[in-house]
Specification:
The complex is a heterodimer of chains A (371) and B (412).
Chain A (H helix, E strand, L loop, with lengths): L13 E11 L9 H7 L8 E4 L5 E5 L6 H21 L2 E4 L18 H10 L1 H5 L4 E7 L3 H10 L4 H8 L4 E2 L2 E2 L6 H6 L4 E2 L7 H14 L9 E2 L1 E4 L4 E8 L4 H21 L12 H11 L4 E3 L6 E3 H11 L1 H6 L3 H13 L2 H10 L4 H12 L3
Parallel strand pairs in A: 8-9
Antiparallel strand pairs in A: 1-3, 1-4, 1-5, 2-3, 5-11, 6-7, 10-11, 12-13
Helix pairs in contact in A: 2-9, 6-10, 9-13
Chain B lengths: L16 H23 L3 H12 L16 H18 L3 H5 L1 H24 L4 H12 L3 H11 L4 H28 L6 H33 L9 H18 L4 H16 L11 H16 L6 H25 L8 H10 L6 H4 L7 H4 L5 H16 L1 H12 L12
Helix pairs in contact in B: 1-2, 1-12, 2-12, 3-7, 3-10, 3-11, 3-12, 5-6, 5-8, 5-13, 6-8, 6-13, 6-17, 7-8, 7-18, 8-9, 8-14, 9-10, 9-11, 10-11, 13-14, 13-17, 14-18
Chain lengths: 371, 412
């Protein structure tokens, strides 16, 4: 099967997707209510989209194409309001967070669509263990070559997004010690990790053809890479973020990525190389495990930096672009969060205050629903 | 009535009451499990069938008035289930979804009116027909809650079932308290009687509410940190026993009292409140006893003569509830299939023991002036819709709504 042509799209346009938890308001366990909520939201007046995810306790929402922080945040607020209203009508809660704190994977039910059943058949229990919740950010690029260049240039910033968005410290009722335990679930999939180091769309097409000829891959959807090209949208898609506990944080992360992409495209501070990936999994682990306190290695200088310091330096570097893109406020919000701690820290603080796990999930849900 | 004295084993009536109880409970457990495994029948139905078999309807091993000694235990079993039901309700949902609130009131009202008018059309006296309609408007909170334990559903239909059966039972209870006002209409001292019955209804409503609040508050205070988690079910059973007994002594409604107690305890304690199904194993044993007793109280006397009225009650309430649920399904956020499932699950009838405020099983004394034939038709319809009740709930929740996972579940 040949790779489809890369659709041209306006550079640096944004689209945000959020996978959300549907919760029972009695015990705050996951509730298999996706079909109910989708039916209630069937004719919503917003430009945003809402659709099912692999298990019936999840939904995915996607914004329309956005260019700046203000309108993106407004749309996410509108979406949050309407979703919350629909959820209250059905007596369910909605929550952010990369994992549900105490759900048991075996209780999850696969959403009844052909593709989800195919995934369930193929991956077995891994599919149900994939009841994790991420934020995906699409950034528009004009062509496939630019997409691949940007994808690989962004690889060294992947730990930034993991640490800033991390909100999955608990899995099945236990504190994992990780800030983002969600990515451990994603890593179990055979086609996860990083995209192959090719910088032209033609070369990528050859790779794709080889993979499809092995029968392992049928479409681009089968790759669970941290960043992947999305030819039908004309975007690259960053997939490493946990779903934050608020839509404000989701908007801020998307706009940080936007200004970073602008910085990389316009200033070309370095050319990506295969060797950038020597430290990729190590840095990724540090971000997942220790969050903003993680220590990463610069693939060029081989020097170690605190992740928090590296993000601070990068925020300063991209400030001019953030100003041009009207997203300074977003970057300021992220800068503040570097000292307050990420959402994983917030969740742990709730638990340490003596709240039982269901109460922690309830507090997170109330935060997301802006009660 | 068949005489069982020829049986080799001693009559249960003459045996030690505890021994008799233990024997029947044991028999019920084994029989219900067999019926469940062989015929896929809900266990609750098995308990009721064993009770029915031991009753004068079957082998006559026990008589209905034998239950008088067990009444405190039966009341406690009902109270335990209703307290648990209250602890699962979130009244705020009715404000968040006004269409649901309307649907909840309408389904009871339409069932009441449909049953009442159909009985009148078939020749029943108006007032008695409306009293039967009021009883038929309620769904059994006891069967609903116990079925939820057995089926472990998760979904809209199960949640609405619990909310609606709580609401329609309370409304039916209040309507029955006011019924004598209507029954006495036209009599010379009606005004004074009406005032008395009205004051009595107000006393029952407000007294039950306050007692429920106090019980819920006590559950919170006594369950504060420091209390051992393992003692929580014992504590809850003790407080439920206290409150339901006081409600009974003071002539209040144990139903309303325990619902408010459950709601209050949940509101005050949030996730600190752990309510085990039937409040633990002691409560589970009481549930078996409750359904056994329900079976013992079954009556089919007069079915041959009264079948048109019995059929009218069953069909009219099905149509009344179905119409209300279907009418408001989409505005309240329910799919058509779910609306059908909810209609089916709402069919188990509420027993008079739950709805009435009384110290014995003499229904007629609680409904003075009720036509004896209408009362008998109502009791027969109740028998049929209680015995088949768990099947209706299973059909609705498992087969139509698909809310019962077939895979093993683990506690959170």
């Amino acid at each position: 099967m040949a790779l489809e042509a890369f659709t041209r799209s306006e550079p640096l346009t944004l689209g945000v997707e959020l996978e959300l938890q549907l919760l029972d308001t009695l015990d705050f366990n996951l509730a298999p209510r996706a079909q109910d909520l989708l039916r209630v939201l069937d004719r919503h007046p917003g430009a945003w989209d809402v659709k099912p995810e692999i298990t019936r306790s999840m939904i995915e929402i996607g914004t329309s194409i956005q260019r700046a922080h203000g309108p993106l945040r407004d749309e996410l607020h509108d979406l949050c309001r309407q979703l919350s209203r629909g959820a209250r009508k059905l007596n369910i809660g909605i929550g952010g967070g990369g994992t549900h704190a105490f759900q048991h994977w075996s209780e999850q039910q696969i959403f009844p669509t052909e593709r989800f059943h195919y995934i369930s058949e193929l991956y077995g229990y891994l599919a149900k263990q994939f009841t994790v919740f991420g934020q995906h950010v699409h950034v528009g690029v004009p062509n496939g070559d630019d997409a691949l260049w940007l994808l690989h240039a962004l690889s060294r910033y992947v730990p930034h997004f993991i640490a800033l968005s991390a909100s999955s410290p608990f899995v099945q009722g236990v504190d994992t010690g990780f800030h983002s335990a969600r990515l451990n679930s994603v890593f179990a999939f055979p086609l996860s990790g990083r995209a192959p180091f090719v910088l032209s769309w033609d070369e990528f097409g050859e790779y794709f053809q080889k993979m499809t000829s092995t029968g392992v891959v049928q479409s681009m959807k089968d790759f669970y890479w941290d960043i992947r090209p999305k030819p039908e949208y004309g975007t690259i898609e960053l997939r490493v973020c946990d779903t934050p506990l608020t839509v404000d944080k989701a908007a801020a992360l998307a706009c940080y990525l936007q200004s970073l992409c602008r910085h990389l495209r316009e200033e070309r501070p370095f050319e990506p190389t295969e060797d950038d990936y020597l430290v990729y999994t190590y840095n990724r682990f540090q971000a997942c495990r220790f969050g903003l306190d993680g220590e990463i290695v610069d693939p060029r200088t081989k020097q170690r930096h605190k992740l928090r310091d590296d993000i601070l330096r990068t925020l300063a570097r991209v400030a001019e672009h953030a100003l041009d893109l009207h997203s300074l406020e977003a970057n300021d919000q992220l800068r503040e969060s570097l000292f307050q701690g990420n959402d994983a820290t917030w969740l742990r603080a709730q638990r340490q205050a003596g709240l039982p796990m269901p109460a922690v999930v309830q507090a997170a849900s109330e935060r997301w629903m802006m009660k | 009535m068949p005489d069982a004295s020829w049986l080799a084993w001693p009559s249960l009536r003459e045996a030690d009451p505890v021994l008799a109880l233990a024997a029947v409970v044991l028999l019920a457990l084994v029989a219900a499990d067999l019926a469940h495994r062989l015929l896929r029948l809900p266990r609750l139905m098995g308990y009721m069938l064993v009770g029915m078999l031991a009753s004068p309807l079957g082998l006559g091993l026990l008589q209905r008035n034998d239950l008088a000694d067990w009444k405190p235990l039966i009341d406690l079993a009902i109270a335990v289930l209703v307290f648990e039901l209250g602890s699962r309700l979130r009244p705020r949902w009715l404000l968040d979804n006004p269409w649901l609130a309307l649907s909840s009131v309408l389904e009871g009202l339409l069932a009441t009116l449909a049953v009442g008018y159909l009985l009148v059309w078939l020749g029943a006296p108006m007032l008695s027909a409306m009293a039967a309609g009021v009883v038929a408007g309620a769904t059994s909170p006891v069967i609903a809650m116990a079925s939820v334990h057995e089926l472990r559903p998760r979904g809209q239909v199960a949640e609405r079932l619990l909310l609606m059966c709580a609401l329609n039972s309370v409304l039916a209870m209040l309507a029955l308290k006011l019924w004598p006002v209507l029954a006495a209409a036209g009599q010379s001292n009606w005004a004074a009687d009406a005032l008395g019955w009205g004051a009595s209804a107000l006393f029952v409503a407000s007294g039950s509410f306050l007692l429920g609040l106090a019980c819920g508050w006590l559950v919170d205070r006594t369950g504060r940190p420091g209390g051992h988690r393992a003692t929580m079910p014992v504590l809850q059973i003790a407080l439920v026993m206290l409150a339901s007994t006081l409600a009974s002594i003071w002539g209040l409604s144990p139903l309303l009292t325990m619902l408010i107690a459950g709601i209050t305890a949940r509101k005050l304690m949030g996730h600190r409140l752990t309510v085990e199904p039937s409040l633990g194993s002691a409560g589970a044993a009481l549930t078996v006893l409750l359904f056994l007793s329900t079976g013992l109280l079954f009556t089919l006397d007069g079915l041959v003569q009264l079948w048109p009225w019995v059929l009218a009650i069953v069909v009219a309430r099905l149509l009344g509830k179905g119409l209300a649920v279907m009418l408001l399904a989409r505005p309240s956020g329910l799919g058509w299939r779910q609306a059908l499932a909810l209609t089916l699950a709402l069919q188990p009838m509420g027993g008079l023991a739950v709805l009435l405020v009384m110290r014995d099983f003499a229904w007629q004394s609680q409904l003075p002036g009720i036509d004896i034939a209408v009362l008998q038709a109502l009791l027969v319809a109740t028998t049929l819709m209680q015995l088949s009740g768990p099947l209706w709930v299973q059909l609705g929740l498992r087969h139509v709504a698909g809310e019962c996972s077939t895979e093993p579940r683990h506690g959170a």
